[in-house]
Amino acid sequence: MKFWRQRKDEELDAEIRSHLDEAIRDRIERGESPDEARANALREFGNVGLIKEVTREMWGWATLERLRQDVRFGVRMLRRNPAFALAAILSLAIGIGANTALFSVVNAVLWRPLPYSQAERLVRVGERAGADVLAALKQTEHSFDGLAAWAARDFMLTGRGGPAHLQGQRITPELLPLLGITPQMGRAFAAAEFQPGRDQVALLSHRLWQSRFGADPQIIGQTVTLVLRSYTVVGVTPPGFDFFPAADLLTPLALTAQDIRKVEQPLRIVARLKPDVTLTQAQQEMAGMAHGLEAQSNAVIQQQMQQSGETAARFDAQRELRLQPLRELLIKDFRLTLLVLWGVVGFVLLIACANVANLMLARAANRQKELAVRAALGARRARLVRQLLTESVLLALLGGALGLLFAYVGVQALLAANPAILPRLSYAAGLSTIPRLGEVALNGWGLAFNLGLTLLTGVLFGLAPAVQFSRPDVHHALKEGGAVSGQGFRLGWRRGTQSLLVIGEVALALVLLVGAGLLIRSLWRLQQIEPGFQPNGLLT
After folding, report:
1. Cβ atoms 317, 279 nearer than 8 A
2. What is the mean pLDDT of residues 309-328?
3. What is the tens place of the pLDDT at every residue in 229-284?
4. 212 by DSSP, 3-state: which?
5. Could you tell me if 247 and 176 are in contact, meaning their C-beta atoms sit under 8 angstroms apart?
6. Which of 115-129, 186-200, 470-484 is modeled with the greatest confidence?
7. Band of residue 99 on the pLDDT scale cut at 50, 70, 90
8. Three-state secondary-structure class, residue 43
9. What is the band of 403 on the pLDDT scale with cuts at 50, 70, 90?
10. Using one digit for the tens of pLDDT, what is the confidence trace for 349-379?
11. What is the pLDDT of residues 29-85, one digit of tens each?
12. C-alpha radius of gyration, the chain, whole number
């Protein structure tokens, strides 16, 4: 761009010289002296500088040229005031960085589609249905393209370092194909491994494979000891696969005929809707089969109660056959919490904007003589506004760049704190562990959000000073001492604006301070809860 502009300027200079030389020659031929011919030709030609500016306007890059000048001037002004620049950049970096980090969390947990094949058509059937419900659905799955189930089971890993408690899931043969998941290493479970007595095989999660087994490439075929039984590792799940809830390993769910007859056998069922079937249509079909299934299940429950003499809850088919989108089911308990937390972090950015706006007002007040000189030389109000906004956006860009570093550190700290701190926070809020945290990362969407928020922030805190100081009273401002008197810039209005900004800062800060105090008090009270026994020295 620079070389193109330089070449065009050279061509323009050459064309102007050509016109002037031709006009001078014509005048000399008419009898004028060389000096008179040059002076008259220049007078007739007009203002050379103005003609150049008009021509550049026609080329279309004059706006970029002025923007480049504004940026260069803004950089010089920031270098002259390093204390002001550092305070403003740090304030903005904290606010923008915190919002970028939380956007990465919200985007991964609430907005990003589940990392499964055709995830928008996945639904959960009921909450904790029995194996008999799964068997009945398999016989009448008219609305579904596929059906699968899993059941939670905890394992104790021994024999490789210290004992470790693992969260596991036993899955039916259809689950991995239904989700479109292929192991990163090894293979999926074979059909024969879903038979009772042949189910002592395991798929390790990518996370467990790296943390516990050192990403051993020879792990396939090795045996691990789980609850004092040997399991053969047949595969490792891909890194993007985060089961619901998160699982350290998967094992086959081998159901016997007796298991299917047990109504209380708890399972979680997931299904994929057919492309031409809506959630409402599928739910109507479930309601149609609910009555018969409820009568059948309650008859089995009654028979078991008579044999065992124990009581059991009746089967509620309407609840156990209720369909819910899988993604909504995973995030419904966290949507409001995360959005409220994002709003709190937004308050932090508003405080930073008000703080920097105050600094900009004070700085602009000390530059009023400079602005008055610009206005006296012909600078229009729009030109002054653009100069001041360019400086504020430049500050915001520097703050946003540093905020990216803060956001990256914040995301990594969040992921590192997840196993120890987040469960306590979730418990304090009455929630389970936040899902899909393993997918949180500062990706392209986070960078785009950071850039957009940075530009918006630069305009937000720079607009008030730019508008207020872009219309100076040149007569007062250029008087001796005008640089500090402030009369040419309506000092009362400036003080009123600054007062409003300070009031807003204090109000928002007070809200955040009270909220933080309540949260710290809740965490402290959780730490003081007596478990009812002495945990010191006890092991599992």
Report:
1. no
2. 66
3. 999 999 999 987 776 667 889 999 887 666 555 545 578 889 999 988 888 888 88
4. coil
5. no
6. 186-200
7. very high
8. helix
9. very high
10. 888 888 888 888 877 777 777 777 777 766 6
11. 888 888 888 888 888 877 776 677 667 666 656 666 677 777 888 888 888 888 888
12. 36
> What is d(CA 385, CA 395) in angstroms, rounded to the nearest whole number?
15
In 366-490, which residue ranges form alpha helices assigned H by DSSP?
368-376, 381-417, 422-428, 444-468, 474-477, 482-485
Q: Is residue 395 a contact partner of residue 88, using CB atoms and an 8 Å limit?
A: yes
End-to-end C-alpha distance for the chain, whole angstroms: 69
For residue 265, is it left (φ>0), alpha (ψ between -120 and 50) or beta? beta
Q: 3-state DSSP call for residue 127?
A: strand
Residues 6+ positions from 470 with CB-CB distance below 8 Å:
371, 381, 384, 385, 388
Structure tokens belonging to residue 491? 């000092």
In angstroms, the Cα distances linking 529 to 199, 270, 424, 525, 526 are 41, 37, 12, 7, 5
Nearest to 523 by CA among 401, 375, 422: 422
* Higher pLDDT pick, 340 / 8: 340
For residues 69 and 351, the answer to whether their CB atoms sit within 8 Å is: no
Tokens of 223: 């045996």
| Euclidean distance between CA atoms 116 and 325, whole angstroms | 13
Identity of residue 527: Q
What are 170's strand-pairing partners? 151, 251
Tokens 């990465």 belong to 104
Distance CA 195, CA 305 (A): 29
CA distance 88 to 74: 14
